[in-house]
């Protein structure tokens, strides 16, 4: 689980950096409330990304990895999508500060970081699998020359 904590912290650090930059850019046109919108968007995307990474890490067997990756995609997309739909239909002050756009920008940046981490996690699990991720010799078909 140490690798999970490391990746979750790295995802948070990446999102904080992007949120600071996008908040500063949005604050030029939308005012200082854009920083709060960027912070909310970063937290929301960090929670969704953390849930997705934990889902990928929880899949131990290669037969479960595809299901784990699909479940991680669902966790990664569902929370930001529901938040955007809820916030855009409400009269929340963060809507005027651009929280919808912040969520989308941070979602896309977080998606890049999390995809790299997921590929590394899955390839690491495959390397640690007995027989190097291949069938045992007894189950390997023998080809005639």
Features:
single chain, 0% strand, mainly alpha, 145 residues, 5 helices, elongated
At a glance:
With 145 residues, this protein is an all-alpha fold.
Task: Please give a structural write-up.
Helix content is 81%, strand content 0%. The chain has 145 residues and is an all-alpha fold. It has one domain. Helix 1 packs antiparallel against helix 2 (33-58) and helix 1 (2-30) packs antiparallel against helix 5. The relative contact order is 0.16.
Number of helices: 5
Name the overall outline.
elongated
Distance between the termini: 46 Å
Strand content: under 5%
List SSEs in N-to-C order: HHHHH
Say how many strands there are: 0
Q: What percent of the residues sit in helical stretches (DSSP H or I)?
A: over 70%
Largest sheet: none
Mean of residue pLDDT values: 86
Rounded radius of gyration (Å): 20 Å
- pLDDT < 50 runs, ≥5 residues: none
Domains, number: 1
Structural class: mainly alpha
Secondary structure blueprint with pairings:
Layout: H1 2-30, H2 33-58, H3 62-89, H4 93-96, H5 99-128
